[in-house]
Amino acid sequence: MPDHVFQSYGVHRWGAGMFARLPNGDMGLVNPARPDAPAASLPVLLHALDARGIHTPVLVRVGAFLKRQLEALNTSFARAIEANGYQAPYRGVFPIKVNQQAEVIDRIVEYGRPYQFGLEAGSKPELILALSRDLPKGALLICNGIKDAEFIRLGILARKAGINCVLVIESPGEADTVIAEAKRLGEKPALGVRIKLTRRVSGNWADSSGDRSTFGLTTKEVVDLVEKLRAEDMLDCLVLQHSHLGSQVPQMMDIRQAVDEACRFYTELRRLGVPLTYLDLGGGLGIDYTGEARATDNSMNYTMEEYCANVVETVKYQMDEAEVPHPTLVTESGRAIVAYSSMLLSDILEASYFDRSAPTTPEADDHHMLSDMAAIVDYLSPRRLQECLNDAEYYREELRALFRRGVIGIEEVARAEQIFLYVVGRIKDVVAQTPDVPQEVLEELSAHRDIYRANFSLFQSLPDVWAIDQLVPIAPLQRLNETPTRRAVLSDITCDSDGKIDQFVLGDGVGNALPIHQLNAGERYFIGIFLVGAYQETLGDLHNLFGDTNIVTVDFNEDGVLEIQHEVEGDTVSEVMAYVEYEPKQCLDAFKRIVERGVQSGTLNPSQRRMLMETYRHALGGYTYYEHEEHTNG
Predict the structure, then answer these.
(1) Residues 389, 244: one domain?
(2) Model confidence, pTM
(3) Which of 34, 235, 418, 604 is 20 to 30 A from residue 210's alpha carbon, by CA?
(4) Same structural domain for residues 422 and 318?
């Protein structure tokens, strides 16, 4: 069976072989350890979760996908090191800020153990979290961010417990605090220095790079730090240089040039007598969200293998030229490790169709413009598409103006709207069968995309999509052997016009409408929003008081069957209310008094009071998202 429907969502380009279409049309997860085995159906998983009382929206984490990406990064660096004759190892760290969830961090520590993979903490809470994880011997714990004395004290004393903790100095003032605390404790810490590179990269996060970035020392401040540490007999503590390249860098040339500049700082510091042994190149390794393989904000013109090979080659050349020993390479590639491993699965609640398949006949005393608009289909042809669109828009606007002036009534306007939708539907039919449709026609028709309402909050689960126009792949989870006949934007269930997605990753690029199937009566229709493992879980807010979704971690067992390994219930209404300083019991008591007044006044009878209070009490303990009636009654 041809895969043209499956490929129309670009899955073959962005999915990295981790997703497949099953013979019945379901979206399936591919076991990376057994890629030739049948894929595991996502709709089957959702029905199994539903039977357990775990309802959509649900964030599904796939342990095997996380492991695959972590292994790929480490093995890619290992191959590049061997191919280039590089004389030092790679020791990656995962930035906790990318996804702080315990289930994610624990799996990264577990899967990273064979590679001595470590963690990066950018705050005191993250350091406290990291110190409680049993990192493998030799793994780095790199401390970035602004640090108070307690933060620094934890980092210094942690080394006495055998933890390879490196405190990265972010500012001149922080250096003074580090020196003072080290003297007070009588210990020599392992230190790093974050150096601002002048090279500014492209992409959504360009501001995190270049000499105007928020963190790090300027060239003059670096030289001053070296002299200060030398004067304090602490220069031997400075073992790591951190030069952040950026985040989601789309252009390989930017990466190579930034690495080249970082190496120049490294070799110069070695010339000044600084005993550096680690070169931390920070973030930068991107994810190809669109599968376009080109240098755009949501894609990149290189692969993970190319990234590793180019980094190793560039560093080796610079070090050999300066006759400096090869440093241990460090990167903080969080997005590339976790983005693939999480997906948000939801169901479509309803659809607003902006066309009609059945004609509406004007009534005898209707305004003549209704008949004029209905007659457009009589001269509709590929050559007259623009004319027909213009005429339909004209008649609709004139009839609306007549309604506003009181010339026609609401029933007549309702019939006019139905006629307009029928005409638009016929225009769409002709466009679908016509090659080389004028761009103007396509742009005008985009205003008549359907609206599909999905059970999630954009602001809670996909904040980057709302805030910075991040693209993430979206596709139906079923009927992928059936050509979709609708084109739609997605609306969430928040009471906000910004709660919509109107840019989509498609098989031939990016479009403003998602190909989607017409809803069938009585059938749940599921969609998946993919590659959301990086940042989205912890950046979300409580807009409209929608809380965290249900979360499950799944993995393939020895037989290749998908199993549920861990679950976290989503926030209840009472939990979310408590986040914003409401005491649920006080709310219940206050509502009870209001309801009792209704009974006393005779507007409520005792039976209705009981039903109202039971519903309120049940809702307090329920999911913040849309609940299907059978769920609440079951």
Answers:
(1) no
(2) 0.93
(3) 235
(4) no
